[in-house]
Amino acid sequence: MSSVKRIELRPRKYCADEVILHSEAGIILSKSVEDAAHLPRSIGGELRTMSDFLEATPLITAESMQGGELEEGVVYSKHGIAVISKKTFERLISGESREPLVYAHKGGVYVKVRGEVLRKLREERRLSRGELADKLGVTPRMVANYEENVCDVTLEVAVRLESLLGDEVFEKLSLKAISRMFAGKFPPGETSPRDDYLRVLLSSLEKHGFKSYAFSRAPIDAGLKGCSERSRAAIKKHGKETEPRELELAAMVSDETGTKLIVITETKEDLSVADEYLAIPRGEVSDVSRKILSYIRGSG
């Protein structure tokens, strides 16, 4: 049984509704909508960006796609993010799935093949690619593509393939398999800080080898990531209008994902350290940048 911890965010305000810590699939950022086709590109882009920062898997759960009900157990996509039905999502969270990974792509439905397993089983049965191709009704080149993970099989071919070699040749549906399937295929969304001070601060920190991220629909306002996982830090602006719940969520998400949290305050208080984060009064960019670098490197 998988270990799962779920952190509920603010659905109407953030690009993700939940941060899920899954013992097998890692960190998952999920967004729930009624019709996945109606999810704005900007939200999808920021969901990918936040997932890249946290090294998480972005996932959309929905009831339908362009008005048509999502099929149970089938993986769809929108804005480069996997889309599954809400029922399928809850089933996969608990680890209850043994069926093949079936996905929709460009008007067709396909079954994910484990190329190395297919080649191994074909050779064990002393079948050439040409002989297997004849039995499947495809070309030898297509069999080579299956084995090299260039493409996957249609439902029709999948039925024949299973009758010949068994269901071991198919990838099993799981959150981890979905994560592998979409990993690295789509770049994170392009974002730039709306706040001029934050823009200058991130630019300064980039000169020290950090990759920076900016968020407008997340519990944090920016992120920094160095060469190692321990050098990942989130930045949260805090002022008189900041709701207490926002800071609580920023601290909770940062703590649970192994991310340092730096809170830049608008007050003139001295530098202070809380259990959940480091608070730095807003000041000259060079001074704030130096304190951030000292905190990240000193505890990294």
From TrEMBL:
Domain HTH cro/C1-type: 118-166
UniProt entry tagged with the keyword Protease: no
Molecular function GO terms recorded: DNA binding; DNA-binding transcription factor activity
CDD domains, per database record: HTH_XRE
Keyword Transcription regulation: yes
Keywords tagged on the record: DNA-binding, Transcription, Transcription regulation
Protein name, entry field: Putative HTH-type transcriptional regulatory protein ENM88_00720
Annotated organism of origin: Thermofilum pendens
Lineage: Archaea, Thermoproteota, Thermoprotei, Thermofilales, Thermofilaceae
